[in-house]
Design a protein that fits this description.
- Helix content is about 40%, strand content about 10%.
- The chain is α/β, with parallel strands linked by helices and about 500 residues long.
- Bound molecules: pyridoxal-5'-phosphate.
- The site of pyridoxal-5'-phosphate has 15 residues, from helix 9.
- InterPro entries: 4pyrrol_synth_GluAld_NH2Trfase, Aminotrans_3, Aminotrans_3_PPA_site, PyrdxlP-dep_Trfase, PyrdxlP-dep_Trfase_major, PyrdxlP-dep_Trfase_small.
Length: about 500
């Protein structure tokens, strides 16, 4: 230990932070030294400590304190300015308690808050950061695109380029429409399934989240599940009366709904791996079953791949499972951190969308050159050899390690991963649907979350959200996380 304290910060440009000290306790300093070149050299200047000499002195004194004073000040002010202090509910840390961390900047798999604390980040801005935050090549391409303007409101070549990439990647997509968010993609998709089939009813699953459009706010996941909210006020009954719900992985439930509503169901919409009520995997029979039922009934099957697209495989969950839906929604990763969503499918369906067809949907900023550039650059990186094997390997190690040290400390835990997506619950499991997920001890999760935060690991501030790894996470990051978790599991 002592020798690490002496050698670590001295040769590193990034270890000079409070968290560097915390890491030292976990034997993490060596990793920090090994990869110090990948961090911006400007980082120490923003930290409360300005001189490397001082840092060394502090390191020897083994300062432990986790200070979030600035975050608290900013968030307190934010609560008077924006509802709950945030622009998206789960960010407010309500279900894990304590104040949220106010971010200053991100790079690679790291995030830094405004108090100078450094975190290994497993949220990755809720999925988009799959190649690492603020990637140098993506940033350079964005700077070039910026010189030509931020928005055209007219066709641009970059739209063709990203559309071609998406169509080539995703098995179900022959034609695509870009929008600005996952919510918007799901809204467009909903109108389209109704326009194409001439039917109104849809089936969705308890705990699945498809953005915040009225019709989807029935037994929804994500923030709705996190905050334990009933279906939202402000949603007219008429908007949800055509939304039928079933339990995830319950094929019989779906069959029953089809039997009762024969010829009336426009589409079955689902997350092909659930990430919005924690991480829940479909059974083979379930996915194959709903593919068959929808086909037989003339309903459309929609995979909402806003989260899983380009994450489980380059072609998304549909490539991973070998099951092709009729329509697909995308978001998150295809914008590479800028606001992009998309919906796409067979040409005969997509030709319904205006101006090719009568179904109206539009967007002032849709397909804007900056967002297209970030998407193109991100997908190009994901095309490289071995990408998904790498994600699978490190994420597998992470989840196996977390479950092992957690169970050793006497906790009931279950969890899993596919490629760069993972999750765990404080319950023995198995977790096959939202009902099972709710058995998790969320108070324990809250304590775990806080403990990890204090050790420099940023997990999603909710039991009901999946975790994400990216190409910037290294085995050392994983090992650091597991050893931090070991201590936290023992303390809760
Ligand atoms: C995140 C998400 C959405 C909503 O996307 P936004 O960009 O937040 O509007 C929709 N569906 C799924 C599966 C998601 O994970």
């Amino acid at each position: 230990m002592a020798s690490q304290v002496a050698t670590g910060p001295a040769s590193s440009s990034m270890a000079s932070s409070w968290t560097g000290l915390r890491r030292t306790e976990s034997g993490y300093t060596q990793r920090a030294v090994a990869s110090s070149t990948s961090f911006p050299s400007s980082s120490p200047a923003r930290l409360p400590i300005t001189s490397r000499h001082e840092t060394r002195m502090l390191a020897v004194s083994v300062e432990k304190k986790f200070v979030t004073k600035k975050s608290e000040e900013v968030f307190t002010a934010a609560k008077e300015l924006m509802p709950g202090g945030v622009n998206s509910p789960v960010r407010a840390f309500k279900s894990v308690g304590g104040q949220p961390i106010v971010f200053d900047r991100v790079k690679g798999c790291r995030a830094w808050d405004i108090d100078g604390n450094e975190y290994v980040d497993y949220v990755g801005t809720w999925g988009p950061a799959i190649i690492g935050h603020a990637d140098d090549e993506v940033n350079a391409a964005l700077v070039e695109a910026l010189k030509k303007g931020t928005s055209f409101g007219a066709p641009c070549v970059l739209e063709n380029e990203l559309a071609e990439m998406v169509i080539e990647a995703v098995p179900s997509i022959e034609m695509v429409r870009f929008v600005n968010s996952g919510t918007e993609a799901c809204m467009g998709m909903l109108r389209l399934v109704r326009a194409f089939t001439g039917r109104e009813k849809i089936i969705k699953f308890e705990g699945c989240y498809h953005g915040h459009a009225d019709s989807f706010l029935v037994k929804a996941g994500s923030g709705v599940a996190t905050l334990g909210l009933p279906d939202s006020p402000g949603v007219p009954k008429a908007a949800t009366s055509a939304t039928l719900t079933a339990s995830y992985n319950d094929l019989d439930g779906v069959k029953e709904l089809f039997a009762k509503n024969k010829g009336e169901i426009a589409a079955v919409v689902l997350e092909p791996v659930v990430g919005n009520s924690g991480f829940i995997v479909p059974t083979k029979e379930f996915l194959e079953g709903i593919r068959e039922i929808t086909k037989a009934d003339g309903a459309l099957l929609v995979f909402d791949e806003v989260m899983t697209g380009f994450r489980l495989a380059y072609g998304g969950a549909q490539e991973y499972f070998g099951i092709t839906p009729d329509l697909t929604t995308l978001g998150k990763i295809i914008g590479g951190g800028l606001p992009v969503g998309a919906y796409g499918g067979r040409k005969e369906i997509m030709q319904m969308v205006a101006p090719a067809g009568p179904m109206y949907q539009a967007g002032t900023l849709s397909g804007n050159p900056l967002a297209m550039t970030a998407g193109i650059m991100t997908l190009k990186r994901l095309q490289q050899q071995g990408t998904y094997e790498y994600l699978d390997n490190i994420t597998g190690k992470l989840i196996a390690g977390l479950l092992e040290v957690g169970r050793e400390a006497g906790h009931k835990l279950c969890g899993g991963h596919i490629r760069g997506m993972f999750g765990f619950f404080f319950t023995e499991g198995p977790v096959n649907n939202f009902g099972d997920a709710k058995k998790s001890d969320t108070e324990k999760f809250a304590k775990f979350h806080r403990g990890m935060l204090e050790k420099g690991v940023y997990f999603a501030p909710s039991q009901y959200e999946a975790g994400f790894t990216g190409l910037a996470h290294t085995e050392d990051d994983i090992n650091f996380t597991i050893s931090a978790a070991k201590e936290v599991f023992q303390s809760i």
